[in-house]
Amino acid sequence: MVDAIDEEFARRGYTSRSEAIRDALRDWLNPSVQLSEETLADLQESWAQREAGETISLDDALDRYDVDVDDDQA
């Protein structure tokens, strides 16, 4: 197992085994968020809408629909 760790930390560009193990443990304790396929599709659609100019700012939406909010809420 140590040989495999040594090969992997060198391949990933770490300068020491302890640095690689520390990062591996950090990833284990704080795993990255995995988004669902549905969420990724929604994000892609949202980005496309923004690029196409199909979105408006919150302030513009509030003005358009004549909504009053406290500054603490907006």
Automatic annotation (TrEMBL):
Domain Ribbon-helix-helix protein CopG residues, every copy: 1-29
| One GO biological process term | regulation of DNA-templated transcription
Coiled-coil-forming residues are none
Q: Which Pfam families does this UniProt record tie to the protein?
A: RHH_1
Q: Which CDD domains match?
A: RHH_NikR_HicB-like
User: SUPFAM superfamilies of this UniProt entry?
Assistant: Ribbon-helix-helix (SSF47598)
Lineage: superkingdom: Archaea
**Protein name as it appears in the record:** Ribbon-helix-helix protein, copG family domain protein
Which species expresses this protein natively?
A: Haloferax volcanii (strain ATCC 29605 / DSM 3757 / JCM 8879 / NBRC 14742 / NCIMB 2012 / VKM B-1768 / DS2) (Halobacterium volcanii)
